[in-house]
Amino acid sequence: MADKKLQLQVIxxxxxxxxxxxFFYHAGALNTLRLTVDKTEYILDNEGVMKALVxxxxxxxxxxxxxxxxxYANKETGKTQKLFDTLIPVWxxxxxxxxxxxxxxxxxxTVAAETPEKAIEWAMNKKEFTKxxxxxxxxxxxxxxxxxxxNYVIGKVDYYEGDPRL
Length: 166
What we know:
four-stranded antiparallel β-sheet; three-stranded antiparallel β-sheet
């Protein structure tokens, strides 16, 4: 099959063409084209006729157009799978030792892990977290986890120094 020419135009709300790009590509008889705009994918056959419209987290539609969850290549298994097949829980690991340091001192880290135990293990292996703990006075009973809620950044360490006047 001969090379084909693809023209992409960006059009403003008034209908004026702002940008035009021309691409030459070689498409076999069974090849498809995928055009991604933001998070929406348009899948076209080699003649440019739309075969499917893929939007993240939408339900299937009829008449050949469908919506599907986004997929990714899992490096561990080597297979393609749904992006949201398994969600890993997010934990908030905290260490508050009232016997040392200034009163009111607190240390927190948000961690994605299968279990609370793995979350604690992961946090304790991070220098950013452990550098705020006086290892001379370290006591495991002051280490705690709970499910993270609200807005959070995974891997972020929050350290609050106490007020020595308390």
